[in-house]
Amino acid sequence: MTIAPWHPRLASYGAAHVLDIGVECPGAPAGDRLIERSDLARLRDLAGDDDDGLRDLFVAVMVWGSGTTNGRGPRYTEAALSDPRLSRVLGATRDAIRSGDLSGAYRQFVLKGVGRSFFTKWFAAVDDREATCERALILDDRVFRSLNALGWSSWKAAGTRHWPTRYVTYVSAMHDWASSLGVTPDWLEWLLFHRNGRVDET
What we know:
By secondary structure, this protein is mainly α. A two-stranded antiparallel ribbon has the order 1-2. Strand 1 and strand 2 form a beta hairpin. The two termini are about 30 Å apart.
């Protein structure tokens, strides 16, 4: 991540310290850092039920999910931080995910500036259930593009255009496919993300 666009957006909410996680990027401008999924898992374990801890984890997810280009991530994160529903939504959706209610989490996640591509990253980050469970996975535009390129339609597979049901169907399908291929579901998710719809390339 590039620190500069993020700091002013987070400082007024007391969340700028989140930018210190991860490791410095070799050869990058001073202060720029690399955040990995393991950093998110560590923050998740530290957060517990603390509202500030959950907020910090959410910010880290948004920073991580924005990648190196940042794009509109800083602005959208600031919008979410200003939303009075933030603490309630983060706590409720975290609890829903941990109880296995992915559909309920999807229905309840409503924050300014945060759409499916990012709130499913939040779902994946807070899901600390055993690997034998159908744990939450990311469904962003790149993954969706690859699924469509493979001819898989979430609404046809789910039998409805209801997004919470379509998300649960996607997660279940990914776990089934990963099991049959002998890989982990999050690795398969990463592969679809990496391909970004270019599924015919070798």
